[in-house]
C-alpha cells in the first residue's frame, strides 16, 4: 500500500511537472507569437512608409521629366527663333551689300556724267 501511495504521489508530481512544463511552453509560445505579431506590425508600417516614399519619388521623377521636357522645348523654340533671326540678319546684310554696290555704281555714273558735263 505504501508503494501504491508512493506511486500515486510520483504520478501526481509528474502530472504537476508536465502541467508546469506545458504551461511554460504555452507561455513561451504566446510570448513568441506576441513578439512576431509586433514585428509584423512594425514591418507592415515600414512597408507602408516605403510605399509612400516610392510614390513620392515617382512623383518627383515625373515632375523632373516634365521640367526637362519644358526646358528642351524652350531651347528648341529659342534655337528656331535664333535661326530665324540669323536668317533675317543675313538677308539684311546681303541687301545692304547690294545697295552699297548700287550706290557705288550710281556714284560712278554720276561722276562720269559730271565729267561729261564739264567737257
Describe the structure in your own words.
The protein has one helix and no strands. The protein has one helix spanning 2-118. It is rod-shaped, with a radius of gyration of 50 Å. It starts with a helix and ends with a helix.
Distinctive features:
98% helix; 1 helix; single chain; rod-shaped; mainly alpha; 119 residues
Number of helices: 1
Q: Radius of gyration from the CA trace? A: 50 Å
Number of strands: 0
User: What integer is the average pLDDT?
Assistant: 94
Model regions low in confidence, pLDDT < 50 over at least 5 residues: none
Largest sheet: none
Overall geometric form: rod-shaped
Helix content: over 70%
* Beta-strand percentage range: under 5%
The succession of helices and strands, N to C, reads H
**First-residue to last-residue Cα separation:** 173 Å
Structural class: mainly alpha
Task: Provide a concise account of the structure shown.
By secondary structure, the chain is an all-alpha fold. 98% of the residues lie in helices and 0% in strands. The protein has 1 helix and no strands.
Topology:
Blueprint (H helix, E strand, L loop, with lengths): L1 H117 L1
